[in-house]
Design a protein that fits this description.
Strand content: 5-15%
Shape: flat
Mean pLDDT: 76
Order of helices and strands: HEEH
Number of helices: 2
Number of strands: 2
Structural class: mainly alpha
Oligomer: single chain
Length: 78
């Protein structure tokens, strides 16, 4: 057990929490980049130039995902 004045860096609960928070931040950042319509992204010294999927294709993909989810819910109900 650690003293009350010590920082619990070796405590496994602290390390697990720290990794979970870091993973959530990275995941949120990557989701933001994927949903972005920008062709050039620069953050933290990293510069990315990418091709962006046209908006109409994104809408078609989302409609397709919803149709697949609806079919899956019908199959699981029966």
């Amino acid at each position: 057990m650690t003293d009350k004045n010590e920082f619990p860096i070796s405590d496994s609960t602290f390390l697990l929490s720290a990794f979970a928070i870091l993973g959530a931040c990275v995941s949120t950042f990557l989701t933001f980049i994927l949903k972005s319509r920008c062709t050039s992204i620069s953050c933290c010294g990293v510069h990315i130039v990418r091709d962006v999927i046209p908006a109409d294709q994104v809408v078609q993909m989302e409609r397709g995902d919803r149709a697949v989810q609806e079919e899956a819910s019908v199959v699981t109900r029966t």
